[in-house]
Amino acid sequence: MYPVSSMNAGPFWSNGPSPGAFYNFPGASVGNSSIAAVPETPGEYGTQHSYNPINTGSSVVGLKFADGVVIAADKLISYGSMARFHDVDRVHKINDKTILGIGGDFADFQFIKRYIDQKVVDDMCLADKNELKPKSLYNWLTRVMYNRRCDFKPLYLDMVVGGMQDGEPFLGHVNLRGRAYTSNVIATGFGTHLALPLFREYSENPTAFATLNKQKAADLTKSVMEVLWYRDCRSDPKFSQVFCTAEGVQEEPDCFVKQNWDLATMIKGY
After folding, report:
1. In whole angstroms, what is the distance from residue 28 CA to residue 157 CA?
2. Distance CA 100, CA 138 (A)
3. b vs e for 15-24, b when ≥16 Cβ sit within 10 Å of the residue's Cβ?
4. What is the DSSP letter of 17?
5. How open is the CA angle 94-145-134, to the nearest 5 degrees?
6. Is the dihedral of CA 143, 148, 149, 150 positive or negative?
7. At what angle do helices 196-203 and 214-231 cross, to 10 degrees?
8. Residue 36's pLDDT band (boundaries 50, 70, 90)?
9. Most C-beta atoms within 10 A of its C-beta, which of 75, 89, 233, 247?
10. 51/22 Cα distance (integer angstroms)
11. Are 228 and 235 in contact (CB under 8 A)?
């Protein structure tokens, strides 16, 4: 026979849920029919996370050509649906071998740009003639974005990384989930639907791609930005493009779309 005390054991765990009842989580108080969380504010400004992108940039396009890469994006940052900031560069020179274009939440880009700049400064301080290479930045960004995604604190960014490594052009894409790929042509946002078909006329034709030099790549990029301006309501006629070749990085910060609205004869107010 078992002793009576062992048959009348206590609860499995203290403060556990009763069968058919709700569990009272620590830090919560029970009202009439709902549970209201007790507000907690750690730190001076509380715990802050980005749950929705607010100030956003639209499409970024990248093209690899025979001697290097080019990345282009318009200079508009939208506050929600309002075209708020009209002169913001979204394609940046990292060093003489690496360039970076960003779409998505601009505040998240400003956050991660501080760490990228610090890596560049660290390379300069070491003075060992090693610089941040495009593949290194690309791989580092995949780990950062995937880590933030796993912590449920993603950085709402679409990034295009380009540059020259070991004499060969490199072009890669990283998104907010850490998904990454490399290709001869890359576009984000509406550019995925509008720009890639125009780029692939060259990238998927070996003969045309072999003859694609810097000037032809610049002309093609400008025609793509013109299409995006006509078709994407979150775009802007002013854009910047950055080239990276064996000679270094060349920035063209003030480019404009050649607008022609003669076809809109029946539309008023444009």
Report:
1. 35
2. 10
3. eeeeeeeeee
4. P
5. 30
6. positive
7. 160
8. very low
9. 75
10. 29
11. yes
Q: How far apart are the first and last CA of the chain?
A: 93
> Going along the chain, which residue ranges are E strands?
28-30, 35-37, 55-57, 60-65, 68-74, 77-79, 82-85, 91-93, 98-105, 157-165, 168-174, 180-182, 185-187, 238-245, 248-256
| Block residue for tokens 């990085």 | 249
Query: CB-based contacts of 227: which residues, under 8 Å, 6+ apart?
Result: 194, 195, 198
Which residue shows structure tokens 């610089």? 131
CA atoms within 13 A on the CB side of 90: 35
Among 53, 56, 59, 91, which Cα is nearest to 229's?
A: 59
Q: Among residues 134, 143, 137, which one has the least CA distance to residue 179?
A: 143
Q: Is the pTM of this model over 0.70?
A: yes
User: Each residue of 192-249: pLDDT tens digit?
Assistant: 999 998 888 887 888 878 888 899 999 999 999 999 998 888 889 999 999 999 999 9
- Determine the residue type at 87: D
Rg (CA), the chain: 26
CB 146 within 8 A of CB 156: no
Asked if residue 63 lies in contact with residue 221, where contact means CB atoms within 8 angstroms, the answer is: yes
pLDDT classification of 25: cutoffs 50, 70, 90: low
